[in-house]
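Dear colleague,

Thank you for sharing your sequence with our group. We've completed the structure prediction you requested, and as agreed, I am returning the results in plain text so they can be pasted directly into your records. Please verify that the sequence below matches your submission; if there's any discrepancy, let me know and we will rerun it promptly.
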Amino acid sequence: MNRRDWLSLTGIPGLAFLGELLRNRHAGAAEPARSAASALPGFGRARSVLIVFANGGQSQLESWDPKPDAPVEVRGEFGAISSVVPGTFLSDRLPRLASLADKYSIVRTMSHEDLDHGSAFYLAMTGTYHQRLSSNPPARPNDHPFLGSVLKRVRPTQKFVHTSVLVNGPGLVPWEPGPGQYGGLLGKDFDPMIVGDVTTGRAPVPGLTPIASLDGKRRGDRATLLARLESSATEAGATFTSPMFDMQALYRQAFDMLDRPEAREAFDLEAEPAALRDRYGRHRSGQACLLARRLVEAGTPLVTVMWNHCNRGQDRYEESEEFGWDTHNDIFQVMGQHLLPKFDQSFSALLEDLDSRGLLDETLVVCMGEFGRAPLVALEPRFDGATPGRKHWSAVYSIVFAGAGVTPGSVVGKSDRHAGYPVSRKFGPWDVTATIAHALGIDPAGHFHDRTDRPYAISSGQPITELYTG
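Please find the predicted C-alpha cells below.
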C-alpha cells in the first residue's frame, strides 16, 4: 500500500475497512475480488454449488456427445436422439435429460493429460495435477485441499453448520477413498462433512436425535469440560499437527449440529413426499441427489454427490448399486442396465426439482467426472467381462452446467467426428474450479493460506465465460 492509498483510508469508514481486510487476511480469506473478475458474466450469481460427480469416467459417446454417423466400432451399440434444443443430440438412453436440454449447457471439450483414476480424481476435485501423474496414490495429509475445503477457508458459511458436504461418499477409487476430497494441507477441520449411504433406513447422520435428559445446559457443561481438557493437552506440548486437533474439529462440528435444529432437519429425507422420493429413484445415488437438494435449500454453499460411490464398472457384481462408470469391458450392458436409466432418472429429477422451487436461478449445478472413455470399442483382456468396452480417455470428454446465469440450451465447444479430440477451445478441471469460485463471487485469481500462512492460488484456471454468453 502506497502513501496515497493509505491516506485515502483516513476516517472511520476507511479504518473499519482496513480492519476487516486485515482480519480476512489473517483468517486465510480470499483477497477482495478484482474489478476485472467481477465484471465478467456470471460473477456472484450462485448462492450454492451442487456437483454431481460421475465417479469412474462417464463415456461422452454414451451420454452428452454421441456420434451417430461414426463407424459402429466408434459410435457403439446405443443410438442418439434429438433433444428439445434443435441440433443437440444425446444418447438414446437419456430421454428425460433430452427433454430438459433447454435447462442446461453442455461443455464438450474438456481435456487434460491424466489417464488413471486416482490422480485424475484428485485433479477433478482440486483443479490441480497430482505430483504422480496417471497413478493411484492414497490420500495424504499434505495433498492440495478439495475445492470445498478451500471454500471453507476463504468464505466459511454462517448459515449452515458445514460449508461443504459430500453425499454418498467418500468416493472410492476403486476400493479406497480417492485423494483430493479432503482438507489436505489445511487440516481435518477443513474436511467436508461426509454422508454415506442414505438408503439404509438409518438416519443419514447418526446421533443427531436430541436426548431428553441432555438439555442445552448439560451439553454446554460437557463442551466446557472438553475445552479445558484440550487446553491442558495444548499446554503439555501438543502441536497443531497432533491427531488431538483433528478430534477437536469433529467435536466442534458435532456440538454445533446438536445446537441447530434446522441443520438436523435438512438431513431428514422422511420429510419428503413418497412420490418425490420415487421420482428421484430409491437407489443410493437418487436419494443422494434428493438430500443434496435439501442441503442446498438449507443454505449449504457446496454440495457434492458421488454418482456412484464406487468407480468400478466392468466387474460382475451381484449388487447393481456397486456399478461405477469405469467400463473397460461390458460397457453397453453395464451402462444400459445399471447406470444410464438411474442417472437419467435422478439427474433429471434434480434439475426439475431445483427449477420448480426457484433454486436453479441461484444454484450452479455441475455434472462431471474425472475423464471420458476412448472413441474405440474393444475388449480389454486384462479386465473382467466378456464383451467390449472403452478404456480411459482424457483427451476430450463432456461435462454439464446449469443454473446461476448459465445460458440454458447451449453447447460449448466441439469434438471431432469420433469424440476423440477437441476441434475448438478446450478446457481443463482448473477452469471448472475457477468457474465455481467465480459463480460464488470469489476471484479465482485470489489466494488462500495454509496453517503456516503460505499462500496458494484458489485456481490456476479461468472462468468458462462461454457458459454465460451462449
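Summary note from our side: Confidence is low (pLDDT under 50) at residues 3-33.

Kind regards,
the structure core
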